[in-house]
Write a structure and sequence with these properties.
binds FE2/S2 (inorganic) cluster; Glutaredoxin
Amino acid sequence: MSKIPFKNDGWSGNTGEYDLTEEQVRGIDFVGERPIGGGHPSVSPSYPYMLEDKNPDASLFEGPYKERFEKILTRYPDKQAALIPALNLAQELRGYISPVTMDEIANLIGLSPAYVRSVSTFYTMYNKQPVGKYLIQVCTNISCNLCGGEDVLDAFLKYTNAELGEISNDGIFTTIEAECLAGCGFPTCVQINSQYFENVTINEVPKIVDYLKSIHEKSSMSQEEEG
Ligand code: FES
């Protein structure tokens, strides 16, 4: 996601409380778009990175993803330990982890399909069904809940015109409820793909949704022009 054109009031670097930029706090690899080649020295962060463009039919793994997968395998003493980063990579590529993807990963790593399914279904960070271009995760855990997190969640559902966990009719949005996103000091915390929005109130939700729609329209137009 490109840099938002309006002030993200919630971001701690913008509140005046800290004289730090988002890049300084999160690290450059976790701000904005992640390069397809990995970007991070580990080639896979500790959570699945959500790209705007997902390819559910992509092979596991080809091209730069094959290189990253092979590098992941070299980083661990046994293949089992590479399961989480391999699942992260598969979700980054396909957007979700289907039962077929679980079986493919099991085959690639040499683990039983049952083991891979048990791990994949344990973690809520793995989407078990396709999601929209923008995955909106609204924290409703205690700090955010006390500051209106559930209202923010309802507002996102209303303005994206979608049911919880479902893709909106325009294919752009999926909104889900998230457990603590570790931004408790800045409730309500919302993660959209890999970008954080903090201190989000219901008043900011239309602005954020409109912004996402506008960048979606721009990217669709430029893709049409190129095609
Ligand atoms: S309770 Fe919402 S980020 Fe921790």
